[in-house]
Amino acid sequence: MRKIIFSFVFLFSILFLVNCGGKKSDKTSDSQNKLSGKISISGAFALYPMAVKWAEEYQKLYPDIVIDISACGAGKGMTDVLSNMVDLAMVSREIVDEEKKKGAYEIAVVKDAVLPTINEKNPVLKELMEKGMKREQFIDIFITKKLTTWGNVVGTSTGTKINVFTRSDACGAAEMWGKYLGKTREALQGIQVFGDPGIADAVRNDVNSIGYNNLMYCYDIKNRKKYSGMEVIPIDINENGKIDADEKFYDSLDSLTKAIADDKYPSPPARDLFFVSNGKTTNPLVIHFIKWILTEGQKFVKEAGYVQLPEAKISVEQDKLK
Fold first, then answer.
1. What angle, 0 to 180 degrees and rounded to 10, lies between the N-to-C axes of helices 135-142 and 172-180?
2. pTM of the full predicted structure?
């Protein structure tokens, strides 16, 4: 009888230990799925829609994490992160050495482009769609002011004045558009307007306007077509005076993002977009969020209308978090 009791106690002890071990594993898994806290982000209008999409999807998995995101321009975002006002800055241009010396640590997360924009009722729209515009013509509108009428641009007698709009804020879009034209953002001439939405509204409300916008402020994410009232000027990349078949990729968001991914659209103004921290971040929530972005989060890039980084580039960015 004693042997039977001893055997039963021994068997029960083994089962108890096994079950305890299983519960410990479950608790560890649960703790990983119950991350909590807050991540604050500010900066570039260019990255804002993508960051919002990532935050929404991430918070479905980790509902106890609050992600606060504000669009205020890349320059303001950089100032915020370097003064420790936010955890991450959204930056839509290259990080300069001076910023790196102050602690700026960048992680590339996605790619997009800046586009030259006009009103869909522009007086010489037909000619612009057929001929496009050369880089030198953009320079003569935004920098030297040699071209002042739309007739000057397409070689007709049309005397309609060109109304030029540029950004008033320290933004990556202006930085990259200026770089494409061989200058800095400070060299860009025109009526100054704050933010991507501001430029887009100015262009839609003025038939004689020209401006530049980040990709996501030109195309409707739902129907993948250009927003009503807005048109994108095709760039005559080979400068032969006409838009060839391989330069026609502006009809839809998907055809344009493919052209950017295939390096058919010039870079700049195509560029990588970054999250920037003040020094290499040690915040576990921020690290977890960015790691998720560079892995599972990449499946939302195309849907959101952006261009995914090449796998080799993503691997490099992941290594920066180690």
1. 120
2. 0.87
Query: Residue 155: its pLDDT value, please?
Result: 93
Q: Does residue 74 form part of some domain?
A: yes
Kindly report the number of other CB atoms within 10 A of residue 111's CB atom. 21
- What's the pLDDT at 33? 58
CA 322/CA 317 separation, integer angstroms: 10
Instruction: Clarify whether residues 126 and 220 are in a common domain.
Output: yes
The CATH number linked to 80 is 3.40.190.10
266 lies in some domain: no
User: pLDDT digits over 286-311, tens only?
Assistant: 999 999 999 999 999 999 999 999 99
- Taking the C-alpha atoms of residue 261 and residue 259, their distance in angstroms, rounded to an integer, is 5
Query: Which H or E element spans position 20?
Result: helix 2-33
CA distance to 4, 9, 10, 85, per residue, from 1 (Å): 5, 12, 14, 73
Chain CA centroid to CA 38, Å: 22
Structure tokens at 209: 């306007």
Amino acid identity of 114? Answer: V
Residues in CB range of 318: below 8 A, 6 or more apart: 291, 294, 295
85 and 67: one domain?
yes
Distance between CA 105 and CA 81 in Å, rounded? 10
Question: Could you tell me the two tokens for 143?
Answer: 């920098």
Q: What pLDDT is attached to residue 34?
A: 77
Q: At residue 111, what is the residue type?
A: K
Residues 105 and 121 in one domain: no
Domain ranges, residue 47: 37-112+271-319
For the record, the structure tokens of 132 come out as 């496009």
d(CA 277, CA 103): 8
For residue range 217-260, list pLDDT tens digits in order: 999 999 999 999 999 999 999 999 999 999 999 999 999 999 99
Are the beta carbons of 47 and 141 closer than 8 angstroms? no
Q: What mean pLDDT comes out for the span 20-28?
A: 30
Could you tell me if 281 and 255 lie in one domain?
no
